[in-house]
Amino acid sequence: MTSPTDQRTDDALGVLRRVFGYDTFRDNQREIIDQVVGGGDALVLMPTGGGKSLCYQIPALVRDGVAVVVSPLIALMQDQVDALTTLGVRAGFLNSTQDFEARRLVESAFVAGDLDLLYLAPEALRTESVLRLLDRGKIALFAIDEAHCVAQWGHDFRPDYLALSMLHERWPAVPRIALTATATPATHAEIAARLNLGNARHFVASFDRPNIQYRIVPKREPKKQLLDLLRTEHPGDAGIVYCLSRASVDKTAEFLVQNGIPALPYHAGLDSGTRAANQHRFLREDGLVMVATIAFGMGIDKPDVRFVAHLDLPKSIEGYYQETGRAGRDGLPSTAWLAYGLSDVVQQRKMIDSSDGDRARRQVLAAHLDAMLALCETVQCRREQLLGYFGQQSTGCGNCDTCLTPPESWDGTVAAQKLLSTVLRLHRERDQKFGAGQSIDILLGRRTDKVAQYRHDTLSVFGIGTELTESEWRGVVRQLLAQGLLAVEGDYGTLSLTESSGDVLGKRREVTMRREAPRAAASRTSKPR
Ligand code: ADP
Ligand code: ZN
C-alpha cells in the first residue's frame, strides 16, 4: 500500500504503473505530462478514447497541491470521482447537485490539502465564494476539459467557459492544461486565444480512427434499415443508436425490442433513476443497444461499442465525429453508420431558423449543417473529408463506403437546371415558395390536389423531369443543397435559389452528382488498416 505522500515524490511513469496499472504511455502522453509537471501550459487535441484524462491526473499526483479540473459534465463527476477513489486517488467535486454537508466536507479537504483532484463545473468559477475557497488552498494545476466549449464559433459553446480566461490572471504561476477531442484549426486557435494560452505548448494527436468504418446511406425506411444492419453485421454486438428526438428514441428502442434486439432508451425526458440504471446496464452487460439522444455518451468509456448508428443527421461534423468516436475504443473493427434524407435537412434548417440567438449565431449553425451535408454527399473518401475538416491530411482509406464501393457520378447539370428553374419560376411567375415535394411533383407532371389548386400544371416546367424517379429527384435536391446551389428555409422547408444558382441556370457551371448507392450497402469486406 502506498501513501499519497509517496505518490507525490514519485515520477510520472511510476504513477502510471502503480496507480493506474498501465505499463507504458501512449503516443504523446509522456511529453504532455512532462510539460505540465514542469509548470508549463499545454493545449491538447486528442480524439475520444485517446487517453486525455491521464494527461492531467498524473501531473495532479506528481505535483504538489490539488489539481482543479473544470468540466461541464456534472452528471459524470460522481462517476469520475468514484473511479479515481477506487484507484486510491483522493478526488472530490463541487457542483449544484450536492447538499450543504457534502460541500463542506470537500471544501475543508481541499483547504487541508487532503485532495489530489477537485472537479468543478465552469459556472462555479464565477462565484466569489468558490474563488476565495481556491485562494485558501494550494493549486497544483488547472485542467480545462472539453475546452472547445470556449469557442463561440464551435458547435458546443458554453458562455461560462469565457470566464476561464481569468484563471491565468488570478493564479499566474499555476500551470494550465486545456483538453478537447474535437477542434477545427479555427476552433483550435480560438481556444488558445480565449483561454490566454499564448505560451502553451500545443499537442495535436492524429484524429484518425482507422478501425472505424464510415458509412452514410440514403434514408428510406430507417428503422428497417437499422434492423438489417444489426442483424446482418452486428448480431449480439453492443452499440449506440442516436436519434434526434425523445419520441423517436422511445419508438426505435421499442421497435428493436419487438424484433428481438435487446435495446434500452436514454434521453433527458426519462427520470434520472431510469437513466442511471440504463447507462449502468449498458456499461456492465454485453450486447446491449443503447438508443439515445446526444444527451448520452459524453465521458462514457465502454471499449467494445461495435457500432454507432445515426438515424438522424447530426448538426455538425464535430458532433458526428465525437458521437461516432464512441465506437471501437478497443481498436477492433467497428461501424459508424448514418442514414440521412432530405427531411433531415429541412427539419434542421427549421430548427436553426427558429433558434434563439442572433443572426451571426444562426449563420454559424447553418455553416455547421452545410459542412455535414457536404460530408454526406461527397464522392470522395469519407475519412479524407472528415480529417480534412479538422485540418489533418489523409488519402483514400479503404475502409469507408466511398472507398469500398466508389459511387458512380453522373452529369447532373440538366437535372439541376430543371429543378432550379422550377424554383425560379414559382418565385418569379407566381411569387411562391414551396418545399421540395411540390417542385418534384411539378417536374414529374403529377396532377395532385395541390398542383391543381395552384394551377402549377400550367407552368412550362410541368412534367419535364420524368426521366428521373422521385427518389432520384430528392437526391438531386440534397446534392444541390450540399453544393450550395439551393437553399432551404423556414417552417415549411421552402426552397430558394442562392447566389451560385445563376451560374447553373446560365450554363456557366456544370454539376456532377453522386449516383445513389444500390440498395445493398457496402459491407465490411476489407480489413481495417
Ligand atoms: P479520453 O478522455 O481521451 O476520451 P480516456 O482518458 O478516458 O480518454 O482514456 C480512454 C481509455 O484508455 C481509458 O480506459 C484509459 O484508462 C485508457 N488509457 C489511457 N492511457 C493509457 C495508457 N497509457 N495505457 C493503457 N490504457 C490507457
Ligand atoms: Zn475512405
UniProtKB/TrEMBL annotation:
Its EC number is 5.6.2.4. It catalyses: Couples ATP hydrolysis with the unwinding of duplex DNA by translocating in the 3'-5' direction. Keywords: ATP-binding, DNA damage, DNA recombination, DNA repair, DNA-binding, Helicase, Hydrolase, Isomerase, Metal-binding, Nucleotide-binding, Zinc. It is an enzyme of class 5 (isomerase). Residues 222-373 form the Helicase C-terminal domain. Residues 514-529 are annotated as: Disordered. One of its GO terms (molecular function) is DNA helicase activity. PROSITE patterns: HELICASE_ATP_BIND_1, HELICASE_CTER, HRDC. Residues 33-201 form the Helicase ATP-binding domain. Belongs to the helicase family. RecQ subfamily. This is DNA helicase RecQ. The gene is recQ.
